[in-house]
Amino acid sequence: MPDPRFHIGSMDDLYALVLGMVESRYDTETRDRFAGWLRSVRPTTAHLGVMMTEMALSGTPMGERHLTLLGFGPDGEPLIDLVA
């Protein structure tokens, strides 16, 4: 079985995967706020937000550092930090 943290496929599939990951680590209300934020921003910003959130939730390394999801803002925007 492939590792669900690594995604190859359409953006719609990636959105569904990330929203499910958010709900499994936070709650339905947070997932819905995040989904609302995604609908409110330009598609390029939404795609970048989804990809960054997926990387942070998966613990994807970026060289010597990795992304950490700190949480979500009141409007649903993901709060992501690059840590050593």
Would you give an account of this structure?
There is one protein chain. With 84 residues, this protein is α+β, with helices and mostly antiparallel strands. It has one domain (11-83). Helices cover 52% and strands 19% of the residues. The protein has helices at residues 11-25, 28-40, 43-58, and strands at 61-62, 65-72, 78-83. Strands 1-2-3 form a three-stranded antiparallel beta sheet. Strand 1 and strand 2 (65-72) form a beta hairpin. Helix 1 packs antiparallel against helix 2 (28-40), helix 1 (11-25) packs across helix 3 (43-58) and helix 2 packs antiparallel against helix 3. The longest helix is centred in the middle third of the chain and has 16 residues, at 43-58. The chain is globular, with a radius of gyration of 12 Å. The chain starts with 10 loop residues before the first helix and ends with a strand. 17% of the residues are buried. The mean pLDDT is 88.
Task: Give the arrangement of secondary structure elements.
Blueprint: H1 11-25, H2 28-40, H3 43-58, E1 61-62, E2 65-72, E3 78-83
Helix pairs in contact: 1-2, 1-3, 2-3
